[in-house]
């Protein structure tokens, strides 16, 4: 399920946002360091879940609150193609998006600057999605 949702988020962002390299977060630091920063980068990664208490004793049914981190990395901050603009584009692309036909819609829970190093701005948005598990 996590791979399916992550892939759907990547596909949605790629279909809605142009001018950026959009992909799932690389699996290793080495792979990440080899990626060029010639244009803005947007990465998607599963960040974890929280689960509700079971709703009954016979069959375990729980709500799962999944979190996905969307990382935006680029050199510009305020220009028309800077980080602020791309953060707004991600917000527009994912707000109300349902990555699976039986999913509820995604919503943003947090947004923050996580790093500024070597003239590269790195921002993250934390998106949440509630699923029913049984």
Describe this entry's structure for a reader.
There is one protein chain. The chain is an alpha+beta fold. The chain contains three helices and five strands, in the order H-E-H-E-E-H-E-E. Strands 1-2-3-5-4 form a five-stranded mixed β-sheet. Helix 1 (2-16) crosses helix 3. It is elongated. The two termini are 13 Å apart. 19% of the residues are buried.
Supply the number of helical segments: 3
Largest sheet, in brief, is: 5 strands, mixed
> Mean pLDDT score, rounded?
88
**What Rg is obtained from the alpha carbons, in whole angstroms?**
16 Å
Distance between the first and last residues' Cα:
13 Å
DSSP summary, beta strand count: 5
Question: How much helical structure, as a percent, in the residues?
Answer: 10-25%
Task: List the uncertain runs.
Answer: none
Strand order of the largest sheet: 1-2-3-5-4
What structural class should be given to the helix and strand makeup?
alpha+beta
What series of H and E elements makes up the topology?
HEHEEHEE
- The shape, in one word, is elongated
Beta-strand content: 35-45%
């Amino acid at each position: 399920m996590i791979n399916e949702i992550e892939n759907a988020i990547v596909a949605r962002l790629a279909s809605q946002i142009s001018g950026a390299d959009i992909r799932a977060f690389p699996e290793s630091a080495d792979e990440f360091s080899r990626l060029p920063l010639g244009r803005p980068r947007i990465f998607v990664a599963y960040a974890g879940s929280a689960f509700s208490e079971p709703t009954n004793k016979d069959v375990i049914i729980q709500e799962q609150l999944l979190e996905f981190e969307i990382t935006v990395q680029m050199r510009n901050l305020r220009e028309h193609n800077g980080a602020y603009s791309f953060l707004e584009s991600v917000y527009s692309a994912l707000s109300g998006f349902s990555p699976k036909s039986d999913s509820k819609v995604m919503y943003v829970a947090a947004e923050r600057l996580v790093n500024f190093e070597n003239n590269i701005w790195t921002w993250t948005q934390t998106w949440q999605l509630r699923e029913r598990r049984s």
